[in-house]
Amino acid sequence: MAQHVSTKNLLMSVRPLVVGVPADLEALRVFAGETAEERSAQCDVVELRLDLLKAGAEELLRLLEAVETPLLVTARHPDEGGGQGGLDARQRWSLVEPFLSRASLWDVELRSLGDLRDGIRQAQAAGVGVFGSFHDFERTPSEEVLEGAAGMAEAWGLAAVKGATFLQTAEDLARLVRFTGRERRARVCAMGMGALGPVSRLALAKCGSVLNYGYLGANGNAPGQWPARRLKAVLAEL
């Protein structure tokens, strides 16, 4: 099963893209059962949280066989919101590897780059765009820390860097806006969580965040998320 959209075409998009995250396996089934037009109205990319979806690779690939929406795969580190009781790097890679022929993107935490070095090289050789992410559920790091994360992603030759942080003040949001707006080799995906999360997702998308996350189904899995369909519609109007 070939990748439907190349990584280059995705991450070089001049408009902000919406990533739809199924809240659960049932939400993914509903999404897969819709028409191509209905799926396109909801999101540009669909993310599989392999550490949360209670299904094996064979079932998920069969479910998505007729879905043309580009696929992003993630198996989250336990300290950055991962599920299934805390999977180690080897276990997380075993969830990701079966999707290399189908996925366009793979989200790897920056803290896991060393542990997943061989997998990253294998994914890049298969044409999968690997990007490095970091999550802070309590605060927004300093500009030095944010720039350090971007520098690390670029040093590893990753396609993008993604940061999700908790926003306590307007200055936190301004810091993310500045981080997102700077020119760099790697594309940036940035989002805020908390009370300022919803407005941050609009502002950051318009300031250069290439991937912007919303949920598919009844509920999101992060504070501040929009429903994907509504997020895509609002961004198209701004």
Number of strands: 9
Rg from Cα: 16 Å
Main beta-sheet annotation? 9 strands, parallel
Coarse shape: globular
Q: Tell me the fraction of residues in β-strands, as a range.
A: 15-25%
How far apart the termini lie comes to: 36 Å
Q: Report the uncertain regions.
A: none
Overall mean pLDDT: 92
Strands in their spatial order, largest beta sheet:
7-6-5-4-3-2-1-8-9
The succession of helices and strands, N to C, reads: HEHHEHEHEHEHEHEHEEH
**Strand pairing plus helix content: what structural class?**
alpha/beta
Question: Number of helical runs?
Answer: 10
- Summarize the amount of helix as a percent range: 25-40%
Describe the structure.
By secondary structure, the chain is an alpha/beta fold. Helix content is 38%, strand content 21%. It contains 10 helices and 9 strands. Strands 7-6-5-4-3-2-1-8-9 form a 9-stranded parallel β-sheet.
Question: Notable features of this structure?
Answer:
nine-stranded parallel beta sheet, globular, 38% helix, 10 helices
Topology:
Blueprint: H1 7-11, E1 17-22, H2 25-33, H3 36-42, E2 45-49, H4 57-63, E3 71-74, H5 89-96, E4 105-109, H6 117-125, E5 129-136, H7 143-155, E6 160-166, H8 170-181, E7 187-193, H9 197-206, E8 211-216, E9 226-227, H10 228-237
Parallel strand pairs: 1-2, 1-8, 2-3, 3-4, 4-5, 5-6, 6-7, 8-9
Please sum up the structure shown:
The protein has helices at residues 7-11, 25-33, 36-42, 57-63, 89-96, 117-125, 143-155, 170-181, 197-206, 228-237; strands at residues 17-22, 45-49, 71-74, 105-109, 129-136, 160-166, 187-193, 211-216, 226-227. It is an alpha/beta fold and 238 residues long.
